[in-house]
Structure formats: C-alpha cells, structure tokens
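Field reference: sequence -> structure
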Amino acid sequence: MAQATRCEHFGGEPAAYLAALKTNINEEEKAYESSSRQVFDALNITQECFEKTQQVLMNDPYVSMELYNLGISMEQPNSEVPTDLTSERTVELVKGSNDYAFDLFKREYSSQVTSDPMLMPVLISAIAHDWVKVNHGIDEDNFKAALFKHKIYENPEVSEHMQ
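Structure field:
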C-alpha cells in the first residue's frame, strides 16, 4: 500500500513524492507508538522507564549487536523470490536503482532534507525500490526477498559499486 501511494508520484513532482513518503513514515510511527503504549501499559512500564533502560542497554555493544540482528531479521519479507530474480539480476537491479536514487536525491532532494538528515536513507531506499517497481514491475516485498535470499549487500560487486 505504501509503495503504491509513493509510485503515484514517482517521476512526477518531487515535493509530492516526498510528501507521500513522509505521510507513510508518520503513519508507521503512529502505529509503532500506539502498539508500544499498549505493551507498556500491559506490563506496567512507564515510557520514562523504558527510555532510561533503552539508553543503558544501547551502550552495551553486545545488546546493540543483538538488537541490530533482530532488526535485520524482522525486515526479511515473507514473500517468495520470483524465479527471474537471480542473484545476477538482483545485483543489476540494485546497482541501477541505487545509481538512479542517488542521482535523483542529489538533484531534487538534498536541500529539502537538511532539516531531517535521518530521512535521507529512507528516501534513497524508497526511490530505489520504487524505481524497480515502476521500471521492472517488481514490488518492494519481492525485491526485498531477493535482497535477503541472495545476500546482496555481502556481494563484493555491490559493495564495490556503492563506494
């Protein structure tokens, strides 16, 4: 749903695309905050207690690494990888989509996200995924499934291209 909304503005007015992305981010944040509140209430944990504990634990390198690994595993989509998304094809799409995304970001968005630098990686990723959808008909879940299956970001060709 989020990708479909973004793709309505893909290749059009950059401000409209950015607005669609920000709306999606806000909706996801609201859902996260709401579900967090429900869990904290059920466990009788205050938001302040959670935040204090989180700060302490994030300073522990072991905990940070475990949370990072959990986050990565939670990102893995459940969809099947289309048979035509071989490792080689996925590498080709990653390189093309990232080239496009970084170029578009530099031309259209770099001045717009200076007030919110955390938006930059999300925007570049969204542009890259939407480029794959619009130009190759592969939706975000299937593309992400291929990224995980083929361990694309461990691929030396991709790593070298990203530098």
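Note: The longest helix spans residues 14-43.
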